[in-house]
Structures are given as structure tokens and as C-alpha cells.
Amino acid sequence: MKITTKFLIVLSAIVSFAFIKPEKSVPRQINVVIDAGHGGNDFGATSNSIMEKEIVQQIANKINTLNSNENTIIHLTRNSDEFIALSDRTTIINRIKPDLVLSLHVNTSKNSNASGMELYVSKESNSYEKSNVIAENFQTKFLQSNYKVSEIKNANFFILKNSEAPAVIMELGYLTNESDKKNLANNNTQIQIAKKIIECLSELK
After folding, report:
1. Mind listing the pLDDT tens digit for each residue in 75-108?
2. Where on the phi/psi map is residue 97: left (φ > 0), alpha (ψ -120 to 50), or beta?
3. If you ran DSSP here, which 8-state letter would residue 62 be given?
4. Do β-strands 72-76 and 46-47 pair in parallel, antiparallel, or remain unpaired?
5. How far, in Å, CA of 141 to CA of 51, rounded?
6. What is the pTM of this model?
7. What's the pLDDT score for residue 100?
8. HSE-up (13 A, CA, CB side) for residue 112
9. What pLDDT score was predicted for residue 120?
10. How far apart are CA 109 and CA 132, in angstroms?
11. How high does pLDDT run on average in the chain?
């Protein structure tokens, strides 16, 4: 009788544990700095009335507004038309200690046929390997959506070298290419680019 009672107690305990819901793991918050290049009296690339500083700010703001993932926190180095020195940008970045710095720019070329996106990382960065992996993911995602994206390039740009976090510069297209310029200035295309970037950010670990 005693053995039966003990067995029933043990069995009851096992059954009760079986119905306890396992605690859900809380996803880690990912902090991303979106750096809109240029600003203020630094127009960046220009073509007629279209300016790099405006395009990258518009897309950076769209990334911030359209991001609905509560675990991806967006920080902007600027959200208005103001000049911020590169040293001040990296001070902001290194104070935040983000998981990624994505610096947005627009290209120009003497060759009007040059077009498409370009991604840059720096081998001088302590976070080069992780930066390169993230850049490869951006490249893959945009290529899958039929964007033209060149091979990932190495460059020792100030933001890439001096950011303590993984950092990628994304040249969104060429203002000297009529097709690129038209797309970059188009609100709907800007939204598509912003959404694709957000999709990539959601996969950061």
C-alpha cells in the first residue's frame, strides 16, 4: 500500500511538470545606428536640384518610421538637415555601442553608365569579419529583390575605421546615372529600400 502511494505521488509530480509551460526566451534587443551622410552645408553628391544629403536623410527617416520590430532599436546620427562632423558621428556611435552602424550615401561617377548599389567595409576595423558577414547579407537580400549590387569593397573610410561596432557603408546608387537618380528620388522606391534594410536588420543576432 505504501509503495502504491509513493508511486502515485511520483506519477502525479511527473504529470504536473509535464503541463508546466517552458519560459519563453526573450529576444535580445538589437541596436542599430543609421548614419545619414553629409547634411547642412555639406550637400554630398548633387545632380540638378537632387542632393545626396536629402536622399539619405529621407531613407534614414523611413527606416526609423517603418521599423515595427520592438527588438530592433534604431538610432539616427541626424534626423534633420544639419552638418555633423565625422568625428562627432563616431563619438555618438561609440557612446551608443550598437550592434551595427549602417552609413547611407549616394555615389557619382564620370561614367554615366555606372549604376547600382555598393557596400564597403574596412579591414582595419576590429569588427571587420562581422561587418563583412552583415554586408554579405545585405548584398544577398538586395540581389534577391533584383537590385544591382556590386562585390563588397574594402575601404578605410573614417566611419568604418573609427566605429568600434561592426560598420557598413551603403552607396545606394549613382546620381550620375539617370535611372538610379530617378529611383533614388522616388518616394515609393525609397520605401522599398527602407523595408529591405529593415528586413536585413531583423536578422541580426
Report:
1. 999 999 999 999 999 999 999 999 999 999 999 9
2. left
3. H
4. unpaired
5. 26
6. 0.87
7. 98
8. 3
9. 98
10. 25
11. 91
- Beta bridge mates, 35: 103
Q: Which long-range contacts (CB under 8 A, 24 or more apart) does 66-73 make?
A: 66/191, 66/194, 66/195, 66/198, 67/198, 67/201, 69/198, 69/201, 69/202, 71/27, 71/28, 71/29, 71/30, 72/29, 72/30, 72/32, 72/198, 72/201, 72/202, 72/204, 73/29, 73/30, 73/31, 73/32
Profile the chain (205 residues) by mean pLDDT over runs of 10 residues. Answer: 51 51 72 98 95 98 97 96 98 98 97 98 97 98 97 97 98 98 98 98 92
C-alpha triplet 108, 201, 96: angle, nearest 5°: 90
Cell numbers placing 143 = 540581389
Instruction: Report in angstroms the alpha-carbon separations of 78 from 44, 112, 119.
Output: 15, 30, 21
Q: How many CA atoms lie within 13 A of 95 on its CB side?
A: 9
Task: State residue 196 phi and psi, 5-degree precision.
Answer: -70, -40
**Beta strands of the chain (E only): which ranges?**
30-36, 46-47, 50-51, 72-76, 100-107, 118-121, 153-154, 167-174
